[in-house]
Amino acid sequence: MTYNVFIINNKDMLILTEKPSVAKDIAAALGGFNYQKGYYLQGNNCIVYAAGHLLELFAPDDYDDRYKKWQKADLPIIPPLMKYKPIREHKEQLSIIKNCFDEYGKNGFILATDPEREGELIGALILSYVGFQDWENAKRFWVAEALTPDVVNAGLKKALPLIKYESYKKAGYARQHADWLIGMNITRLLSISNGALFSFGRVQTAVLGAIYLRDKAISDFKAIPYEMFKADCGEFALYLTDSAGNNKFEKNNQLLKIVSESVLPGDAMQITKVSIQQKIEQPPQLFNITGLQKYCSAKYHYSPKFTLQTVQELYEKFKCMSYPRTPSVVLGDDNVNLYQEKFDLLSTAYPEYATGCDITKIVGSNKRLFNSAKLTDHHALIPLAVLPESAAEAQRNIYSAVLERFFTVIKAPFIYNAINVAAVCRTYSFTGSGRQINSLGWKEKEKEKNDDVELFPQLVEGQLCKIIKTEVNEKETQPKKHFTNASILALMENPTGEEGEHLVGIGTPATRADIIATLIEREYIKEVKQNLLITDKGKYLIDTVIKIPALRDFISIKTTTQWEERLESNPDDFLSETKKFLKKIIAETDIDITKKWENAGLGVCPICKKGKILSGKFSYYCSDYKNGCKFSVWKNICHAAITDNDVQLLLTGKNTRTKKMKTKEGKEFSAQLILGSDYKVQFAPYKK
Which tens digits make up the pLDDT trace of 302-337? Predict the structure, then answer.
């Protein structure tokens, strides 16, 4: 039975949420509310909602018309007071919110935007716009769980004074203002310098720089050939090793040549040393959103943005998932009962996933699962209810990933012996390494399928083993791999410095997917066979940044992480340093247009076979359009953004990735696109 928090508080109340779905959930939990246009009402109790950000920072020309023309003489643009204006499409809802505050906001107020830095900023901007003054008596609804009636009522009862979250608001303002100042000024500086629009962003450019450096290292890499002499003893293999412990030899190495002629099949290999060390590999912890995005990118080839959108649907629409935008991989100390409750429910519904679980691990002392000291804003992703039968394939896949991890975290560890073996044959030294499996534990399901790890039998010193065959393996050194969605997310979450030191992550769990998507949409990177590759336009941008000494460090992940640290520790100092930094850059940078950027296009036009496919404001089109070529692809199809990468896939006859779309009636669906025989975009046939 639900109860009315307003009656408990014995006064009327206004609640502001970040999105309509949250307002609906709170109204349903409290009961007795009627929906009005843009809000819910029960007597003098009101629940009104935003739609994410309703206000945006002024554009430069909102401050002064002279900024409509981009010129270095006006840089840096640093307004004495950063001003906001309503976002055009949200003006009506903002007016509704203001009316609700005027009518119902006099007695009490609870802010119920998302429990994070950005949610705090959204709320603060709206409160400033409506002229809210009663900060001392305002409360904060801070809940990371799916908004079931019990959760809503408990969260409202535990609401703390809003002023306790002041640090989140300050950091939100500082982040937004600094990103505006850097983005607006450096984008103008670079664009003026190069005669074309080049977007610059504090985090965006650092990520692009990492991809640039990785691609350059790969293209500059010179493979070095080497050879290894392998002695196959049946159940295991050993490799020729020189006196310095090396088992990789240059071609035509004299020792390798001698051994390959003298050590032959049928010879006896004598084990001289066996070193064994037991290793215990605990099950992986619960997913945070970045971990889930990496997993789904590797397994299902879902983009990070698509994964985030889908898990958001599981949270909002089906209420079977906890709050998605979380950086945490643990639950809180007081969530033992929550985990036990969900375990009882889900192990009954999905017994195949629960096989092998150790329920004795559902205790507060299990700090790999329950650890408030390592909790950041929201607890880890966990399933909260059974997935409805109506769920789509992608929703089912992502739910299953979180469900499996929910059970895996309390399974037995994977235990094995790491074994190193030394041996001798005809006075020549051989070594090898591998493992012996003691207990598969949480890896039972996959049966330790790992082709890169050699399994060894039990061996003892002095044992003689017959060589079955010998061979010289010709190999060469390999470069690092190109970044993928999974590996670039891993870098953003846990970057490391040149000396291997751990750095603070860049971006947030909520923004990392958008950063990657933005780089693709702006044609700075492209995705080819899951690899994220820098484009010619991206190279040109980074090469330009490198030429400007004050900007050069911005392609460094370490520099950006240092900015993140300053933002968290002291938002005011962070913003002040940003302004000083901008003035220094503008003063030290000379504008010299030596070469304009020329767009090479996304591919050859499939209709006229001679024009280049270019990116326009609303569509992709053929460069030969003046001669009558009609090829085009809209940049928005059924409310889904079409990217450069999508167009390149279409031009090569391939399907786009699965996209979240909406019908004219607003019904959501997922589909892939393909270029038809008439060169028009159509839905790809469904594949099971």
Answer: 999 999 999 999 998 999 999 898 889 999 888 899
Residue owning tokens 């890896």: 443
Q: Is 348 exposed, middle or buried (0-12, 13-18, 19+ CB in 10 A)?
A: exposed
pLDDT average, residue stretch 179-195: 90
Class of domain 173-219+482-588: mainly alpha
**When comparing pLDDT for 523 and 503, which is higher?**
523
Tell me the per-residue pLDDT of 572-604, one tens digit each, with 9 for 90 and over. Answer: 999 999 999 899 888 888 766 445 666 667 889
User: How many angstroms separate the CA atoms of 515 and 513, rounded?
Assistant: 5
Radius of gyration of the chain (CA): 30
Distance CA 676, CA 653 (A): 9
Cis peptide before 225 (omega within 30 of 0): no
SS3 640: strand
Give residue 427's region: left, alpha or beta (phi > 0; psi -120 to 50).
left
**Structural domain boundaries in the chain:** 5-158, 173-219+482-588, 225-282+414-476, 289-408, 613-683
Widest CA span of the chain, in angstroms? 96
552 burial type by CB count under 10 A (0-12 exposed, 13-18 middle, 19+ buried): middle
